[in-house]
Amino acid sequence: MAYIDFLSPLHKATKRDYLARVNDPEYPKARAAELAKQWGYDYWDGDRRINYGGYRFMPGRWAPVAQKMIRHYGLKPGDRILDIGCGKGFQLAEFKSAMPGLELYGIDISEYAVEHAHESVADRLRVGSATTLPWPDGYFDYVFSITTLHNLHNYDLDKALREMERVGRKNKYLCVESYRNEEEKANLLYWQVTCEAFCTPEEWEWWFKTTGYTGDYSFIYFE
């Protein structure tokens, strides 16, 4: 288990007006969260004040993340890769471009996301929950989850971390939201619309130990 940061450059590239998100007159925070947690059109392709504001594939945007993961974990053609919380499959599409021989799989709770997946990986995605992964023990050479597991309540987070550990043969990585001080905590509360597990790094490490998760991890902070 190690702290490995694959995501910070992408996360920090987005400018955020935290107070505007909370106080928006048409989509105040509570309303935005209600819509986002339906995981449908509003979450992915609706107004930016709700969440993504049109989650379109931008070729190359996620390529550095895929390339770094391939190099770090020594992935090779024929390896089975699972993305838990794959959304529209954009990260998997970059994996396919970077190394065409990988055997790719993705799972997401959102029927809308899977129905509107990137055409290059659409047939590799399925609708389902991180708490009950439909694959046998040790099936995957690499399992990853990016900004997904913090959206689960504690009772489901426990199951999801155990499931991620179960289906991964060796290499695993997850990235979740966290905070180190009161300013970052407030910013996280202002910005997020789907987060349920508000944990400090120390609390996340407690979760990993409690559930037996042995993979790598990193956190994103709202500075």
Q: Could you explain the architecture of this structure?
A:
The chain has helices at residues 8-12, 18-23, 29-36, 41-45, 63-73, 90-98, 111-115, 154-167, 182-191, 201-211; strands at residues 80-84, 103-108, 125-127, 140-146, 168-177, 216-220. It starts with 7 loop residues before the first helix and ends with a strand. The protein has a single domain (8-220), classed as Rossmann fold (3-Layer(aba) Sandwich), CATH 3.40.50. Helix 5 (63-73) packs across helix 6 (90-98) and helix 8 (154-167) packs across helix 10. Strand 1 (80-84), helix 6 (90-98) and strand 2 (103-108) form a beta-alpha-beta unit. A 6-stranded parallel beta sheet has the order 3-2-1-4-5-6. It is α/β, with parallel strands linked by helices and 223 residues long.
How are the elements arranged and paired?
Layout: H1 8-12, H2 18-23, H3 29-36, H4 41-45, H5 63-73, E1 80-84, H6 90-98, E2 103-108, H7 111-115, E3 125-127, E4 140-146, H8 154-167, E5 168-177, H9 182-191, H10 201-211, E6 216-220
Parallel strand pairs: 1-2, 1-4, 2-3, 4-5, 5-6
Q: What is the topology, as strand order, of the major beta sheet? A: 3-2-1-4-5-6
Distance between the termini: 25 Å
What general outline do the C-alpha atoms trace?
Answer: globular
- What is the typical, i.e. mean, pLDDT? 95
Defining key terms:
single chain; 223 residues; alpha/beta; Rossmann fold; six-stranded parallel beta sheet; 6 strands; 16% strand
